[in-house]
């Protein structure tokens, strides 16, 4: 699309998600093409992608093998139901996914997004306890500042106030929250996992004492909280959560929608931290975002309790028309093959120290009060402007876009998650551009 065509585009009908619609439509930023590390904007500028789209295009954009798989599948069979029917790609994709999931989490339930994966995982947790005669375990524990998507379950266990506010009267009732782990005073500019903060996991014991373990189905956390502004777990924190869950018969759910598929240099964060959850959600990088796809990996214990524990007939009354959609799963197969063939997780691990050094080079830059990173996930927190929280982050993002680099603002935190195919010079360029933008923004 050229500039003229873009100017003639009617922007009014599309009610845009998580967007300041009026602000955006008064000065739109349109992307019209993508390849490798770059988008092309509608006015023909190359935009270096510092965010893998939205934490999802891990292998880089429009990879030939994935494009071909999508095209072939669309021509061969557009859709087939997976309710009491099946098609090969869904089974193939589940098998390929299960090769990479941790421990015995080898049973894959498909959804179409991270939000649906989260709600599916919450329902599986409830169904598991019920199948074992512990249907009284209905409470979920999550964490302040957690992001688990936007459906009712995910919103209810979500800990970002703005995402809950309009719906607060209608949340899933039994949810309680652990404190988040960010403490800038104690741990500012930590490289990797902060040393401070493992004791915050002990808050789970307090909630167990308060509610009684027999009422709690599961704890759900992002191993590294992404959307809220990159909160890296303190050393020992996730291990401690695992221990406490085990002690009380509580399931542990890792929401790996961002951390999954190589972002920390291992297939999942579970392997990076050597902490195996009972249920694991994924989406985004599962098929390099070539088509909507989400999934839940369930342990043998959970799968068998539900599937083998049901006398006959349908075992789990849950599923989506598009669970295991042919095009989405064909894209997943091609993506996982590509990850393996190009050893992209090893490449992600190799780039992580380069990324760490580059992002921390912004220490001392104007407005910067903290920098956090792990693997190829990074956050730069800016001091908010007096009376206008979020304005500085937004303006820096717009400046970067004008200068040809895509970053993601979350309030006054700038977030980074480059594709794993990034070259070292491109990582350097991302942070050099951010530094220049920060110099220009008040
Ligand atoms: C940890 C986590 N869970 C769930 C979601 C929701 O995924 P989706 O936007 O695909 O519904 C996201 C999205 O960023 C996420 O980061």
UniProtKB/TrEMBL annotation:
<dbReference type="InterPro" id="IPR015421">
    <property type="entry name" value="PyrdxlP-dep_Trfase_major"/>
</dbReference>
<dbReference type="InterPro" id="IPR015424">
    <property type="entry name" value="PyrdxlP-dep_Trfase"/>
</dbReference>
<keyword id="KW-0663">Pyridoxal phosphate</keyword>
<dbReference type="InterPro" id="IPR005814">
    <property type="entry name" value="Aminotrans_3"/>
</dbReference>
<dbReference type="InterPro" id="IPR015422">
    <property type="entry name" value="PyrdxlP-dep_Trfase_small"/>
</dbReference>
<keyword id="KW-0032">Aminotransferase</keyword>
<protein>
    <submittedName>
        <fullName>Aspartate aminotransferase family protein</fullName>
    </submittedName>
</protein>
<dbReference type="Pfam" id="PF00202">
    <property type="entry name" value="Aminotran_3"/>
</dbReference>
<keyword id="KW-0808">Transferase</keyword>
<dbReference type="GO" id="GO:0008483">
    <property type="term" value="F:transaminase activity"/>
</dbReference>
<comment type="similarity">
    <text>Belongs to the class-III pyridoxal-phosphate-dependent aminotransferase family.</text>
</comment>
